[in-house]
Design goal:
Layout lengths: L1 E8 L2 E10 L2 E9 L3 H10 L7 E5 L5 H4 L2 H6 L4 E3 L1 H7 L4 E2 L6 E4 L2 E7 L8 E6 L4 E5 L16 E5 L4 H15 L6 H20 L3 H9 L8 E5 L8 H12 L3 E3 L8
Parallel strand pairs: 3-4, 4-5, 5-6, 10-11, 11-12, 12-13
Antiparallel strand pairs: 1-2, 2-3, 7-8, 8-9, 9-10
Helix pairs in contact: 5-6, 7-8
């Protein structure tokens, strides 16, 4: 399998996976959370025509994951998502059910499983051919489904923030909020920052959360771990990449905000 990151951040997410199935290239997209014009231009940069993409899988209904969904339907690219996601987007597509196998393309099958996030219908994906298995999990706090019987060749997983950075800052803000010496404007500013941090903490995976998620998997066949959706403010890509690679003994990569993998 070849993997391409077109975008990976809260500003937008889009990935293309290229499987070789019986000697034939089979390209699918996961997430379409950037404008269609950017998808076209980024596909051109990596030498892929959008006409080659046989399907698009969407994990949930936040715009940074599905911005171009409606446009892709007009291009007759099949969409796969949960019923909750399609309802939120007011579009139709191939409805998938958790833990139920579905056909993505010739020789490529998928299964979704629920993840804990702040919008209904959020899922992760398991993709399988006869030769390879890929697990893809992005926006999530945690997942409880037992997927240890799968042996992924590649794992894509969110690693949004460093808990050792965010938690101390959060508790410091809580202490400041309780300080009666602060003026109303200052307290309002603190509340805004707290809400931003609380959303990260309650709906996205920290470095520790990512490690816990990976520890639930059978990585005995894994050739690569790809970290996605890193926070601009609270992530340290070098620390995250090195720590996870050392912990699991699997080559680890970072999916970049503006596209590319390093």
């Amino acid at each position: 399998m070849k993997a391409y990151c077109l975008a990976s951040s809260s500003s937008g997410n889009c990935f293309i996976l290229d499987f070789e199935i019986n000697g034939v290239s089979t390209k699918i997209m996961i997430e379409c959370g950037i404008p269609l014009s950017q998808i076209y231009s980024k596909c051109t940069e990596i030498g892929i025509s959008l006409n080659e993409v046989q399907a698009c899988l969407i994990t949930h209904s936040h715009q940074d994951h599905c911005k171009s969904a409606r446009e892709l339907t007009r291009l007759n690219i099949p969409l796969f998502a949960t019923n909750e996601t399609f309802k939120a987007l007011s579009i139709k597509g191939n409805v998938i059910e958790p833990r139920q196998k579905f056909r993505v393309a010739n020789g490529l099958f998928g299964m979704c499983f629920p993840v804990e996030h702040d919008v209904e219908g959020s899922v992760g994906f398991i993709l399988k051919t006869e030769q390879e298995c890929v697990i893809f999990i992005i926006d999530h706090k945690r997942f409880t489904t037992n997927i240890s019987h799968f042996k992924p060749d590649y794992v894509f997983i969110e690693c949004n923030y460093d808990h050792k950075v965010v938690y101390p800052q959060y508790h410091e803000l809580v202490r400041h909020k309780e300080d009666l010496a602060y003026e109303d404007d200052e307290r309002r500013e603190i509340n805004v920052k707290l809400k931003q941090m609380e959303r990260n903490i309650n709906s996205h995976a920290s470095l520790r959360g990512t490690e816990k998620g990976l520890a639930k998997m059978n990585l005995s066949n894994c050739k690569g771990i790809f970290l996605t959706h890193l926070s601009d403010r609270y992530a340290n890509e070098y620390k995250m990449k090195n720590e996870i690679q050392a912990m699991f003994g699997v080559k680890t990569y970072v999916c970049k905000k503006i596209g590319g993998i390093k």
